[in-house]
Design brief:
The structure is a homodimer. Chain A has about 350 residues and is α+β, with helices and mostly antiparallel strands. Chain A has one domain: HIT family, subunit A. Helices cover about 25% and strands about 25% of the residues of chain A. In chain A, a hairpin with a 4-residue loop joins strand 1 and strand 2. In chain A, helix 1 packs across helix 4. The N and C termini of chain A lie far apart (about 45 Å). The interface between A and B is large, with 99 and 99 residues. Strand 17 of chain A pairs parallel with strand 2 of chain B, so a sheet runs across the interface.
Chain lengths: ~350, ~350
């Protein structure tokens, strides 16, 4: 069982995952390559190599669970950072604060095709994938111990992928992670001052200026954020104000699939298969949630869910790690020009 | 000239360094190795390859500037993220906030020896190096436009070093970076509640528990923080409460050099030359400083300067980048046991 510990000095929770405890010789190199085909545990026919599935999509009606024939498969992570059993047991340890590592850690195998990626999967398949994300989110939010669910994808070894087969991860946490808490606070402050959604305001400002809009459709806008941390960073914003991704309609799902596939194809064309992280930011779970010891807030109707694509083309070094202050060598306006000029190889 | 832009949604400043603008083909791979010897611009005899020096230590009295004979050399960064000319020109751009990239970006060439590192340099040399850091900090803080100075070191390619020759960097910024602002806020809240320094309290708690103390001397304590983000993360805390590193005495400089060298040797022994970031956290510059638009605070006497050593043995992937929530697979108590058991090869 892992443990959550509060960093009193920096004001953030950390997961100490003693279950996957690493001794010095396990730590001697950060992997810079991903595991290759022959024994891929995510390929069809290898289902017994993974923990029993939570959900599978696309298998024919007579297909048995944990056999082939699926189109998308959701499994528990074999080495979970957090696990679902038991109570949080929040307590103080002298000056310090801890709780048990209660949560969930799932893997979404996005396709049976080992060589695919978000840019090569057909839009209909991306719709199925996004629907799986939405449904897992809604399901995990039934458990009121889980305050936040992060859906994310590591594409490429440099971005943290350890297996090449296309997959995403879902981690449900018993606290609101700091970046999300910070976004909630910014949105709240803006709403209190102006009675308008911060994200809607940013979207309108960007659409009016039209310097950082990469692509758009009737439901979503893909833009390079004004203060991007990373070169070619993108944000995908729904035009319709909604706090949580669970509110997405079928029509919006199709529109999001279109944007996401096209954004992936354009990044691939401009940057030659870049490593990237894809993250979903959505409202936290509960009506009253704890951002840090002692600070309860109410459900943020002023939040606005969105996706972030964070290409990993620059090193996150001492300056960034020591200050959370980023140096981005590519202006988002310049990234936008490159991404507008290429058409996706769809 | 680079530009600082405020991320309204995440509440943090970002440097858009358009001077070192990177086009797509420059971005196609994150360097995983460091530049090798023959043309090292930091080696003695190559002084003309760098911008003219700001400071050099150890050259004989008759030695000319920008020639060999130095022991430590401070130069402006050839590709600075921030530069010292002109006014900040803070202004709004519609909804957004920006200022010019005013600041400083220096490189400290730590030794003439290309193959040295913090663990092999003699303690007397580390004292000289730490004195250079202190003096540069004091000098840069004379410029009241500069609100914060970060001294940091990237050791190894994975930690962001692009040249192998031992060097550190100093970046002076016109804003307080978010992690430092967060530490200041945590320290302030703790002080307001208890009229005690948060860092002194943490230090006392850790000394009493003695589970995470790696080494100590009369002036400094090296410990593995309770909520370490990274495996084998270390914090070096001065026992004497002082907000800024500029307050260090000569006796304390010698004690810090001893700790730092010994910590580097032990990490090297246990982890076989790990990549790491070393960062100095000290109080910001001014009596009144701006943490974010509209929020002025006064000089934080409740802060307590310190060093952090952050080994880079795990990937910072989508979960961490998307949430600022870290998964650490090695408990700090376990790291402490390994680091206590080895003696440095001093």
């Amino acid at each position: 069982m892992s443990e959550l510990r509060f960093d009193l000095i920096q004001g953030r929770w950390v997961i100490i995952a003693t279950d996957r405890s690493r001794r010095p010789h396990d730590l001697r190199s950060v992997s810079q390559s991903v595991t290759e085909p022959s024994f891929c545990p995510f390929c069809p026919g290898q289902e017994r190599r993974t923990p029993p599935e939570i959900l599978a999509i696309g298998r024919p009606p007579n297909g048995a669970p944990n056999g082939p024939g699926w189109q998308i498969r959701v499994i528990p992570n074999k080495y979970p950072a957090l696990s679902v059993e038991g109570d949080l047991e929040r307590r103080g340890v002298g000056l310090f604060d801890r709780m048990r590592g209660v949560g969930a850690h799932e893997v979404v195998i996005e396709t049976p095709e080992h060589e695919a990626d978000l840019g090569t999967l057909p839009d209909e398949h991306l719709v199925r994938l996004l629907r799986v994300f939405r449904d897992r989110l809604a399901d995990l939010y039934r458990d009121r111990r889980l305050k936040y669910v992060l859906i994310f994808k590591n594409q490429g070894a440099v971005a943290g992928a350890t297996l090449a087969h296309p997959h995403s991860q879902i981690i449900a946490t018993p606290i609101i992670p700091r970046i999300v808490a910070q976004e909630l606070n910014q949105a709240r402050q803006h709403f209190e001052a102006k009675e308008r959604c911060l994200f809607c305001d940013v979207l309108n400002e960007e659409l009016e200026r039209d310097e950082r809009i990469v692509l758009e459709n009737p439901h979503f806008v893909v833009l390079a954020p004004y203060a991007s941390r990373f070169p070619f960073e993108l944000m995908i914003l729904p035009r319709r104000h909604a706090a949580a991704m669970t509110a997405i309609t079928d029509e919006e799902l199709a529109a999001l699939a279109g944007c996401l596939g096209e954004a992936a194809r354009r990044l691939h064309r401009v940057l030659a298969d870049p490593p990237y992280n894809l993250v979903f930011h959505t409202a936290p779970n509960t009506e009253a949630f704890l951002t840090k010891p002692g600070a309860w807030q109410t459900l943020p109707h002023d939040y606005h869910w969105h996706l972030e694509i964070l290409p990993r083309l620059t090193q996150v070094a001492g300056f960034e790690t020591g200050t959370d202050f980023y140096i981005n060598p590519t202006a988002p306006e310049e990234a936008t020009r490159f991404l507008r000029e290429v058409e996706g190889a769809g």
